[in-house]
Structure to design on (92 residues):
């Protein structure tokens, strides 16, 4: 089993709540692996995720939209990861 497979397998933080799609587990595993490799700190990623969710909330509220708490969480997670990697110059 590869390290990525191990990360994906261990990505279930709450046994009652699994990822709703395989890509969510992969995104989580990639973020953990990159953080462990020193590409960024988990605090850096967390700050980007908080900003991403906050911006989404501001846009949604301004347009009168609604969403359930946690809805689209991993979409925000992935966007935060993308923005952090762009900021670090790893992707463009």
């Amino acid at each position: 089993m590869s390290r990525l497979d191990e990360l994906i397998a261990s990505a279930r933080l709450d046994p009652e709540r699994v990822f709703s799609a395989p890509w969510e587990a992969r995104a989580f595993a990639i973020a953990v692996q990159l953080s462990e490799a020193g590409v960024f700190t988990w605090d850096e990623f967390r700050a980007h995720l908080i900003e991403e969710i906050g911006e989404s909330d501001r846009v949604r509220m301004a347009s009168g939209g609604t969403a359930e708490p946690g809805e689209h969480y991993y979409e925000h997670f992935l966007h935060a990861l993308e923005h952090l990697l762009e900021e670090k110059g790893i992707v463009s």
Observations:
- Residues 3-87 form one domain.
- The longest helix spans residues 42-62.
- Residues 39 and 78 are 16 Å apart (CA to CA).
